[in-house]
Amino acid sequence: MALYIARRLLWAGVVVLIVLLLTYAVFYLLPAGDPALRFAGKSPTPESLALVRERLGLDQPWYEQYGKFVKSFVAGDEWGWPGLGISYNTQVPVLEQVKDRAPRTLLLILGAAIIWIVLGVAIGVLSAIRRRTLADRAAMGFVLIGISTPVFWLGLMALYIFWNQLGWTGGTGYVPISEDPGGFFSHMILPWTVLAMLFAAIYARMTRNTLLETLGEDYIRTARAKGLSERKVITHHALRASLAPIVTMFGMDIALLVGGAIITESVFNIQGLGWLAIDSAVSQDLPTVVGVVLLGAVAVVIMNLIVDIAYAFIDPRVRYE
Amino acid sequence: MKRRVAFPVVALVAIAAVASLLVSAASGGPEKKIAKGGTYTVGWESSFGWTDSFDPTGEYLANAFAINTNLLLRGLIGYNHVGGPAGAKIVPDLATKVPKPTNGGKRYTFTLKNGVRWGPPVNRAITSADFRYAVERLARPKNGAQYGFYYPVIKGFDKYAAGKAKSISGIKTPNPKTIIIDLTTPTGDFLMRLGMPAVYPMPQEVAKCFEGKPGAYGRYVIASGPYMIEGSDDLDISSCGAMKPISGYDGQTRLNLVRNPNYRASTDSAKARESNPDRFEFIVNSNIDDIYNKIGRGEYDDSYATASPKVFREYTVNASKRKYLHSNSADGTYYITMNLTQPPFDDVHVRKAMNWALDREAMRRAWGGPVSGVVAEHIIPNSMLANRLKNFHPFRTPGNRGSVTKARAEMRKSKYANSGGVCTAKECKNVLLVTDVRAVDKLTLPIVQAGAAKLGITFTVRSVNGAYPVIQTTSKNVPISNRARWFKDFADASTFIGPLFDGRSIIPSGNTNYSLVGLKPGQVDALGVKGTTKGIPSIDAMNDRCQKLALGARRTSCFAGIDKVLTSKIVPWVPYMWANTVTIISPNVTKWNFDQNAGFTALAHVAVKS
């Protein structure tokens, strides 16, 4: 196992470097081109433009900039480790921006993930064991609604009803849990629920399908023939085997949401990493874009690793040595 | 005895009541009671979007000007921060008076007021050396000044900027109170240039730590105005290394201002700054609808955001909400730019025909209708020309809907058109038009296409996310774009002429003279311009003549004259709207006014229920 983890970590490093390389390349292939124009005022002289390019390091070939970034990333810079540089736009170190925004996104994902995994698996199991009953149809109705409702619409409607009209929850914005735990939960309950709806629907559907498939397997029949209770058959045998694909998807979904919960962040004004990435990309703030992309890539790699390790525990047939 | 006292009391009460009603009506405030205290909260769309991270030396965003000039900083001269022509009038701020230039218009002498002090943690008197430092910091190219081009008129500025002098010879500070500025040439708008925050005094002991790091001082700005960044008093300035960003501004999502304890209202004018709220909060919000919801609920008081048409409708149609919507001239022009070197726009008759053909009213509707602005009939907004051209309508058509008849009559004079006034030449087919990807550009594009189609002109449209860098690069030779707009830097018509039409201002990238008016054959190769490069008309000499005139009626008339020549003879643009700044305020706001100079809410005069 240790060798396997070491090998995966090595590959993870390579993947992260390739992702960064692609980010740099995309940035330089953007049609609107020269970010120096943004920082040189209304009527810049060629000299002032050259100075801005020099200051931002844009006067060097992109591969040299990339090399410098990788070096700085590994060794750290004046703002700490890992060295992510300083934002063109805000003059705030990217590390500071990421540290400020990451808890918002991670707590959003964490809360939503708990809701969607509990809700999704529970509905999926219920639907599978009560197949073709009213409960199954209701569950599949929920799935249909969850999958087909756009997140932004759901978010706006939730805000309108629960905050604007009923006043049951806090409104938009982010309240740090360290400042006001009550305010934190009050403001996060809607984004958690809205973000979880889509995923809960997908997970319910997936759980139902895999569980139904598993319930038809020979070893389940054997377990039943042995006289095990239906509860034990479901929880000890069927559900455990059905969980493998769900765990894979769960890990990847969490990783992708690190930079991908943009709509939820935007509607609820949470201003996490997703929003930071979009805002930076629009304003051609390369260091910040790279910082967020890097974090997203690392998240994907780490979650992949965790999923692979989790496999070994969930499914005893999977071994790495 | 009682009766004698009672009458004046009644009279005074009545007068006060009438006066308060008038003040409220003039300010447009929905409530009558004006009180000190409270927090004025502004929702800010998406991100602060500073151009230089809020460092006054380089910061060019109008809203940063508004925060700096109304609340945080004081300059030698300033404005009263009100709407209309009164808001464009220069008044003394740190200086005891607005000086009259001497030495043939080339020397300005200022005396600083007594009792003006830096906010915490600097806590000392503001001196002439602070002004000198600010200008020298601005002149040093490595500090990223974004509008430094206004100041080479100061004697010795260029030499200092080039590193060939130890100080700017045109700035003398014989004592801590006196500043003498010598110019190389009489410059009528020089006082207005001094009204821009980059040349407001700056404390060297703090700003020196950010030498060569443009924008970095933005998180350490020391107050000279009535408010300071929250947490300024905790800033340790014992050494550069000890300084940590002021806590009230995180650089990304929130800027909080609180009262500056060292500010003395007695050194200021209540006409310029009332400073009513105790606190200002500027909060970035990624959800525009949420911003306006919060304004409606009174959680925010104001915004820096583009309201959706739905919000506009809500506040224009609903009578109970109409009083919360304010629309003021932003002193800016939206226009279609045509490149004088590119066919078919190298023919003045085609350019004139485009002016006749365009449905300006439809363009305005695309922007949101009358609340968004006034249909423009020439280049410089009437508000900046003291209405001198209010009767000048070279391309007026009924309802501003355009006229095919007049357009084709003009087009017939063109070398590209047939006798029916329709262009049949290949130069009119698939002409490159650069536009942006914003929703409003998608709305205005078909209107431009429809107008041009009536003249036989068709376009190849290139939509670019961020079209400005493309149309600002001369070697791209963009024939036409509907993306262009321009706002004043200060309330002088010159800011609409020099950068936009002076041939000497044309530069290869970042160019704002998109039409290339005044292009000389000698510039062509360096700029990468291809097309018709000979015989391009110029207004350079006229601009020089106007620029020498002192502020006042003659100067305004002079620039109005250039506008007439440009609009009716050279015709580089199709101007279609003089934009308004539309502001929606919350029911909590008890006093509101518009700052004509900054083009934003007059933060110095607002008040909220506390």
Number of helices of chain A: 12
Overall spatial form of chain A: globular
Main beta sheet of chain B: strand number and arrangement? 7 strands, mixed
Radius of gyration of chain B: 26 Å
Please give the number of β-strands of chain B: 21
Number of β-strand runs of chain A: 0
Residues in helices of chain A, as a percent range: over 70%
Q: Averaged pLDDT of chain A, please?
A: 86
- Helix segment tally of chain B: 18
Task: Write down the overall geometry of chain B.
Answer: globular
Low-pLDDT windows of residues of chain A: none
Low-confidence stretches of chain B: 1-31
Mean pLDDT metric of chain B: 92
Report, as a whole number of angstroms, the end-to-end distance of chain B: 39 Å
Cα gyration radius of chain A (Å) = 24 Å
Query: Which pair has the most extensive contact?
Result: A-B, 45 and 56 residues
Estimated helix fraction of chain B? 25-40%
For the report, how would you describe the main beta sheet of chain A?
none
Which structural traits does this protein have?
heterodimer, A: 321 residues, mainly alpha, 12 helices, 0% strand, B: 610 residues, alpha+beta, seven-stranded mixed sheet, five-stranded mixed sheet, 18 helices, 21 strands, disordered N terminus
Describe it for me?
- The complex is a heterodimer of chains A (321) and B (610).
- Chain A contains twelve helices and no strands.
- With 321 residues, chain A is mainly α.
- Chain A is globular, with a radius of gyration of 24 Å.
- The N and C termini of chain A lie close together (7 Å).
- The mean pLDDT of chain A is 86.
- In chain B, strands 11, 12, 13, 14, 15, 16 and 17 form a seven-stranded mixed sheet that branches. In chain B, strands 7-8-9-1-10 form a five-stranded mixed sheet, sandwiched between helices.
- Chain B has 610 residues and is an alpha+beta fold.
- Helix content of chain B is 27%, strand content 17%.
- Chain B is globular, with a radius of gyration of 26 Å.
- In chain B, α10 packs antiparallel against α12.
- Chain B contains 18 helices and 21 strands.
- In chain B, β19 and β20 form a beta hairpin.
- The interface between A and B is large, with 45 and 56 residues.
